[in-house]
Design a protein that fits this description.
mainly beta, Immunoglobulin-like, 2 domains, 14-stranded mixed β-sheet, two-stranded antiparallel sheet, 2 helices, 16 strands, 46% strand, elongated
Length: 275
Amino acid sequence: MRKYLVLGVVLLAAIVLSQLIACSDDEDCPTCPTFTQQAVLVGEAQVDGGELEAYMYAFGVDGLIPDVDSVTVDGLRMWSQLGGEGVMAWMFGMDTLTTRTSGDSIDVHIYTPGGMCSCTMRLLEDDVDDPVILNFPDTYPGDTVDADAAFDVVWSDVPNADYYAVMLESSWQDGGSWVYDDTVVISSDTVFTVPAERVANAGRLYVDILAATGPHPFQGTGNITGSVVQGAINSICYYGVRIVVVDGVTMAPAGPDEDPEAREREVISRVFGRN
């Protein structure tokens, strides 16, 4: 079943490596100065069985080595810098002490040598908040549609989501090679109409739905406050199906479907512009 939760974090960060004033989660720093952005932070987390697990990656800008003191969630120190290579550092943390569920809010604080920034955001929950597609099966090889007509994809409502991101990917063979075309639409509805022209030109379609909280990927604004780190934190749930087009462009023989978790990671990466 392609149903997984990922709390996606896109943190456009500023981490200071010169003229530093020490400031960690153990001390007050009300007058931390403003610094130039010198790193990008990217993280992921998921709530599974009520527990929060999270990863964070810091990528240095202009060859600088990123430096993050720690990250706290609701006052609990979850992250400390574990390792890195070149201009990338990575961190991991989990909270097994606090039970969380769909709709809960968390306060995130990110500490660097230059100061602290914060974000309050709402969580989605694995399985509970999956935007389940209702009119197509998620088993391989999926359902079929005619090549000459538009059709609707309908999914379940996720009350705690701020919006849905729909990725439609069509693929076909041209001279023995696969050609791909994808479109991403942000919507507040629970139905998406696949245009007839996209069906006619495809031999295979993927329809992937992301339910999310926080700024959407094309909004251009963040939900992190402070001068040291800027960006956005999102909570994301995923569901996707594969649809075969009848009498469309000739396809190669169908093979085993992709690993659903790998598909999930790919979709989130492409929709939210992550590397």
